[in-house]
Specification:
2 copies of one chain form a homodimer.
Chain A lengths: L3 E6 L6 E4 L4 H7 L18 E6 L2 E3 L7 H5 L2 E3 L3 E3 L3 E4 L12 H7 L8 H4 L2 E3 L2 E2 L11 H13 L3 E3 L2 H13 L3 E7 L9 E9 L9 E7 L3 E8 L5 E8 L9 H8 L4 H24 L6 E8 L1 H7 L5 H4 L13 E2 H4 L8 E4 L9 H10 L8 E6 L3 E6 L4 E6 L20 E7 L6 E5 L7 E2 L1 H13 L18 E4 L2 E7 L10 E4 H25 L8 E5 H4 L4 H6 L11 E5 L1 H11 L1 H13 L1 E2 L6 H9 L21
Parallel strand pairs in A: 1-7, 10-12, 13-16, 16-18, 19-28, 21-30, 22-24, 28-29
Antiparallel strand pairs in A: 1-2, 3-5, 3-7, 4-6, 8-11, 9-11, 11-12, 13-14, 14-15, 17-18, 19-20, 20-21, 22-23, 25-26, 26-27
Helix pairs in contact in A: 7-8, 12-17, 12-18, 14-19, 17-18
């Protein structure tokens, strides 16, 4: 019989006793903790990683964990067995899907080939050895340092700020007149330009010591932070978390309204700062850095998120004529911006285009390659709003349609975000009309996330449970279709199968909301195409960004008329294009400048003032569309 | 019989009852308040001004008060009688000698002829009317404003900071798209340059509404603030106060030592900020302004004062090789500098040259006209240190000799600053060797201020009470010369005549300290002249700046060898040349740039490393000098 060991989880009050050889996931369950296992405990997804801070374990697999992670005690809970008394930290990331390891990051974000820190980077560490002052050379500390740096760099001017002047004499003497200033070279090192000292480090620091920067994507729902070594260009840590503003409104409109009441703007600012600063700290722990040594942060996000972050009143975004206070935000110090990085480090908000086409889109256009391709390309970011860009290296048009948050689960009775317990895929049997589904985390379902809603709508349509208008066929011989308080409804999951002890259903009101959302997005495509005289079928590729994009089933999205009907190979899912764009801008000034050029080049079409949009929207309020010739591949089985 | 009235002074707990027709000075005395009357109550000096905030008075004279002052209730306490129940505010300036009225200011500081706000001033208020946004013109608020400002000004670039962005949408709508931005145009309006928005005011503000700036002179002992309307160029209010740092050390050296201990640097910073901020408020009260509307502040002061103000560690100033951390301080925001002016307003420290030649001297060189004159000129600022500049428009050499604070009353047994109760002039009868003296405020004496020390030393020498070595002739038939615990001493004032109930004396130790101080200064002259091969007699004018300079009796200063022996008409007293220089830089960018050029042009000679200085110092350790041919006009009566 196996010896018994005590396992103490940080988020549980009491340790649990388990026999040796018990899986950490089982030990956690005994302690009342549910660890997310999206892959079903097969050791494939890496989402169940925990940190063993004390005691002996055996890892059956360390897939998706780096050697450093393992050294730090990280272990896959579903693949690791207890071999001694343990202390285990459950990282907060179990709450949401997120990348865990630098290994995974490398798959998503690759250091651009040819990245050259010395040429491309605006943050430069310049070790210099100074001549000691003497009675024959009474030059002041700052003039002495400045002269040496100008000689070393060939720059024309170097500025210093008060906080750095205050530490200057101490650092110079501490390093015995050897010092490594960190410079921010706004316009790059290649030209004869000017720079600002953002930090001073004693001694001559060799180049193999990292120099830190951060890329931050501020989503309405989720905030992502990536820590990057600016010298090698490598991402070294990443962290994701809900935007704490969620508690004050799910979408941008409700946040703008909240910001306008009393000190709502102040509250929202501190909430998102809290999230970002916590993520910076978490990313730094993973990257073995310290947030005080981050010297440059690049931020991307929709225009409302940027306004709220900086407490710039956002109300004009919501009211006609829908304008921002600023699409171009001045470069700030971290202190000014409220970020807990190095206080005199730089914070740069990438430029947006309009109230509903923010820097998440301009950054996305850069990272998607749209602005450099010869192909006619449609770039799409579906979230609360559907933002889209049509164009190529020659031209760019953009619009945003207020699709509403239906595909994020809001405005749908059993809608929810894509977290543990959400059904993310549904299949309906053509004969029996019975449903089968998959749940994130493999537990009992709590509701339906966006990808499930697309699947479900498509399956209901293709199996004839609903018609093109989204109405239920109540003549069908199945208990799953019934009349509810909101009109017709379909039962996806019976109460006894669910976590919430009630039937999970989709109602006609839900369907109506989903149809409005998809119709708004498709109408956006139509207007963009029309405005430049390019029919949708001429689009050579469709690039889909945004967190939600990753989980869309193209076939089903086409079936409901959310995406245009074209060969699947023309679709590409790019993941978080906004964060990738911020990462690219963080590394290379040319990318940052390119994003500004993209913002300037983009022609914005205001849909709320465009009659074509209303026409296109009305035409798209069928499944998949009133004009079936636009969807030749969609053959509706239950068509009557 | 006169009716009796009640007079309540703000600094007294209880009102006093006095008959109608009583002078305010007498009423004050009855209330236990001593109001400073340097001119002896003759209504000439204006130093006894108080503010009658309620009740009826009759002013016999309003000399040195402007019409506005009188309207505000200001009255000369020595010239004003009670005619009703009164409330009276005693301004704190009664503590020290200072200018009181804008009328007096005008005599000191004159708006330079040809001052043109539109061309010369770096702070510009630019009223613009914007096109309202519409669905056809969705330009962001900031882009809309920026475009209009660029058109209006012809500038190339205009930047904005976060605090201004935060108020932008509200101000634009409050002013119905009419707005008056306040710009800081670092390099002037004439060139196509860049600017920064430092404030936004709703509506179109006409040019007759003042635009405020401040000039501040931070002395080791005294801080002076001048409030200036940048449009007319006129000084509108001035205030003076002791530097609150005095409580932590009388001279720069003791302050540097204090700054190095624990949080001493923080303490000193907040003390001087307290002084400056209080003075700004006081000046604004007088100028009918509000310190939040001051958009530019120019600071001058010695290098230690500037370091301490900004909490830049000053210890290297004190230790060989005596260097500053910085002579050129970056332009700061008021928030950063700690000044309570408009938070995004600019604070500019004028550049210094070396540890002991600060911006008080470079500003002084500008305002004295030295840098533009054809004449060989010696500029001198005697305070704790003797800073001096020799030169003309062609060349400038400078040095500082640590004269020590003897002439400010420190290091002298009965020395004191030039405040109420200080003897400021002494005469000795050649026959009887009896002393006569004058006291500031006309009360009983408390001690001897700097000008009295010079007089006394000269009189003692000229009447043969001391010899050229500063030793007393103890053979004289007078009780005033006696042997004390510090060697020989002279009684200036007997205990029963004094406020301090003890004899006010000058000892041989005091004399030694004074001789060291004057010898250091004269040695400075010698080395400066020698270094450029110009004998002192070739100097065509001697310009004396600094608060102390105003009270020096040239004849007596020459007699003791403090000043070189030359015709009196070559000497000029310029008053506070540092504040005047800051005022000129505040008005006109060209002046500010000229001060930078002066700082660059000045050749600094380090005396502590110069053997010529020690030789010259030793030679000057006699009264007036070992080489009497240098002082042909000095005929010592009691010469033996």
């Amino acid at each position: 019989m196996a010896t018994s060991f005590s396992v103490k989880f940080d988020i549980s009050d009491e340790p649990v006793e388990v026999p040796g050889g018990t899986l950490l996931t089982d030990a956690a369950e005994k302690a009342g903790i549910k660890i997310n296992q999206p892959c079903g405990g097969q050791g494939r997804c890496g989402q169940c990683a925990v940190q063993v801070t004390s005691g002996q374990v055996r890892r059956r697999s360390t897939i998706r964990l780096s050697a450093e992670d393992v050294e730090d005690g990280y272990a896959l809970a579903c693949q690791t067995v207890v071999e001694g008394d343990l202390k285990v930290v459950v990282p907060p990331q179990e709450k949401i899907q997120q990348h865990l390891t630098t290994g995974q990051l490398a798959a998503d974000v690759v250091v651009p080939s040819g990245y050259d820190y010395h040429k491309d980077q605006t943050i430069q560490r310049i070790p210099v050895t100074l001549k000691q002052p003497s009675m024959e050379d009474q030059t002041s500390d700052w003039a002495r340092l400045k002269t040496a740096m100008l000689q070393e760099t060939g720059l024309n001017e170097i500025l210093i700020s008060l906080p750095i002047l205050q530490k200057l004499p101490t650092v110079l003497r501490e390093g015995d007149w050897k010092v490594s200033p960190v410079l921010y070279v706004e316009n790059g090192m290649e030209k004869e330009g000017s720079a600002e000292v953002v930090d001073l480090l004693p001694g001559l620091i060799p180049e193999n010591i990292p120099l830190w920067g951060a890329a931050v994507d501020i989503g309405t729902t989720t905030v992502k932070v990536m820590l990057v070594d600016l010298i090698s260009g490598e991402p070294k840590g990443q962290a994701t978390e809900y935007n704490a503003q969620i508690a004050r409104g799910e979408d941008v409109i409700s946040r703008i309204i909240f910001a306008g009441k009393g000190e709502g703007d102040k509250t929202l600012r501190s909430l998102v700062l809290e999230t970002i600063n916590e993520l910076l700290e978490r990313a730094c722990q993973r990257g073995k850095s310290c947030n005080d040594t981050i010297y440059k942060t690049i931020l991307s996000g929709n225009s409302t998120m940027i306004h709220l972050l900086l407490q710039i009143p956002p109300s004009s975004i919501r009211l006609a004529p829908y304008i921002t206070v600023a699409n171009n935000i001045p470069v700030m110090s971290a202190l000014e911006a409220g970020l807990r990085t190095h206080p005199t480090g730089k914070v740069i908000c990438l430029p947006g285009v309009a109230s509903y086409v923010g820097s998440d889109i301009t950054a996305g256009v850069l990272s998607s390659g749209l602005s450099e391709t010869e192909k006619i390309t449609l770039f799409l970011d579906v979230g609360t709003n559907g933002e889209m860009v049509l164009g190529s290296k020659e031209w760019l048009v953009t619009c945003a349609c207020s699709a509403g948050p239906a595909f994020e689960g809001a405005g749908v009775l059993h809608g929810m975000r894509a977290t543990t317990g959400a059904i993310d895929e549904v299949w309906i049997n053509e004969e029996t009309k019975e449903a089968a589904w998959r749940v994130i985390g493999d537990g009992k379902p709590k509701g339906l996330c966006g990808s499930a809603l697309i699947s479900l709508l498509a399956e209901l349509l293709m199996t004839g449970v609903i018609n093109k208008s989204g109405r239920f066929d109540t003549s069908l011989d199945t208990k799953r279709v019934r009349k509810g308080s909101h009109g017709g409804e379909y039962v996806v999951s019976w109460a006894d199968e669910t976590e919430i002890d009630e039937d999970i259903i989709l109602t006609e009101v839900d369907i109506d909301n989903l149809m409005r959302a998809k119709a708004a997005i498709f109408a956006g495509f139509s207007v963009l195409g029309e405005s430049v005289g390019i029919p949708l079928e001429s689009v050579e590729q469709v690039l889909i960004g945004g967190g939600f994009g990753q989980y869309i089933n193209v076939e089903k999205a086409v079936q409901i008329g959310l995406l245009p009907d074209m060969p699947w190979e023309r679709f590409q899912f790019l993941g978080n294009t906004s964060l990738k764009g911020a990462y690219l801008a963080l590394l290379d000034l040319k990318n940052q400048q390119e994003i500004s050029e993209i913002a300037n080049r983009m022609t914005y079409i205001e849909l709320s003032a465009d009659n074509r949009f209303f026409d296109a929207f009305t035409s798209a309020m069928f499944l998949p569309h009133t004009d079936m010739t636009l969807f030749p591949s969609v053959k509706i089985g239950g068509d009557k």
